[in-house]
Write a structure and sequence with these properties.
single chain, 579 residues, alpha/beta, 43% helix, binds pyridoxal-5'-phosphate
Amino acid sequence: MVSAKKEVIQMSSYSPPLEGRAGKLRLDFNENTAGCSPKVIEAISKIDCNFLSAYPEYTQFYTKLAKYLKVLPENLCLFNGTDEAIKLVIETFLQKGDSIAIPSPTYAMYKFYSQLNGLKIIQIPYKQGLAFPAETVLCALSNKPKLLVLVNPNSPTGTEISDSDIQKMLKKAKENGVLVAIDEAYSQYFKKSSISKIKECENLIVIQTFSKAFGLAALRIGYAVSNEDIISSLRKANSPYSVNSVAIIAASAALNDLEYVEKYANEIIENRKYMKLGLEQLGFTVYPSSANFLLVNFGAKNNLICKKLSQNNILIRNRNSEPMLENCSRVGVGTKAQCEQFLSTLKKIISQPLLIFDMDGVLVDVSNSYRKAIQQTVLFFCKKEPTPDEIQQYKQRGGLNSDWDLTEEIIKDNGKTISKEKIIKKFQQYYIGEGSTPGLIENEKWLLNAELLQSLSKNYALAIFTGRPKKEALYTLQKNNAAEYFDLVLAMGDIPKEKSKPNPYGLTLCLKILGYNASNAYYFGDSIDDMQAAKNAKVEAIGIISPNICEPGKLSSLLKEKGASVVLNDINDILGVLG
Ligand SMILES: *Cc1c(COP(=O)(O)O)cnc(C)c1O
């Protein structure tokens, strides 16, 4: 097998969520959300097979684009999207080991192509509050990196770089022989550009695209603007037909209808204010933006909000995992109606109550699995099998946090001393199975109706807090096609043993992770420990009587006594108590 070159092997792969976006409200990739000018569609529809059978020609389009940008055709190089422009700037001017200065967080492709080409990346962090770090960049220029990248306005922050900062950086870059690439993918919303500076500044390359405001992301066409020398090198290094003819026809038609783009951009700038205000009124921090998107700090609810919006067919971009962007997502600004749809859905999502479920006896009938494992384990060590009723008595005592603890207790009461390790090993043998013998886990019956679960997940945040080992919890969820509906699963291992139920720790942790107040949450459980944990966490407790329980009436009274506001005989009656 041939292996990839070192740089590729070492690269982290860039995998944006790109599939299955059709038909959804796409506020995740900063595209034009209303579509390109109808003139573009008209022009494309006139294309015939004769046109498609010929290789592309660019001269006319260069002239037209040059006129639009108020430069000469010799100042332009077309690319297959600005991504290719970034790639070619790096490949044309930098060698392996050269350094590239990248104020971060920023557009991912700079790091991507730097890694691919074995560059030394100097990341310059944005300031606190995500302001542009002009002073640090100026310092970094003294070390003479080969290339400085400025994304203006920046993505995903929306930050703009002031003209005076740009002047200072260009001056210092010139003194130090540093090439500067300014990425202006969002220039139509920013209404400023550094293109006019290419005359005075011989080491400046400005990059723009038809992907964003022009609404042509699918066609992949962008360009670099610079002086003739730089452009001729770029043209020399680029493949001769990287931009296809359909893109040329479309971009040309788009330039014939500049009014359309300007009107759209102005509308977005208005809506950006509306969105920002709406988000701030809901209590979220929104960063200043000069582009068609907003970076929003959604706090602890960030991941939940992204997931719930997506279930409601609204896509935003979760940025939580990037340095400096904890709890942040990038939200595209669309038409007024799209902004309203986003804000009203968001409002609905953040007011949804949180439903937390215990697993065993609530979501799954374990009378033929865990309960049988207890019986068989006790039988193995004590030669005597406890009845389901006896096991239930132990359950109702409370304080036994797992079925392992419970099994140990019964064995002790039978006068045997067996190490916990041995008990667990035997128990798991019965429960999980061994070799070709299937385990009792296969007997579990999922209780919550699939359609009901699906509709609950649309209207509530859903979590699981169980004493069961995590692996076994996830196994059962996956087996029953339920995993995708739960926003959080807390299980044994997530909670220190001394803080098990009835300690409120697990429920409180659940609230904290999902950003909820106790007053907007319910806990569904089947044991007195569950009810007491809920009471201690100040969460409303709902008792569930699982199937196959002896004396359900007695358990029901007990659960109520320990804090259940309601007790249900069937988890599928849940909507009755939620109102
Ligand atoms: C979207 C984007 C690009 C990529 O544009 P394409 O022309 O579609 O390749 C480049 N830079 C920034 C900052 C962007 O946000």
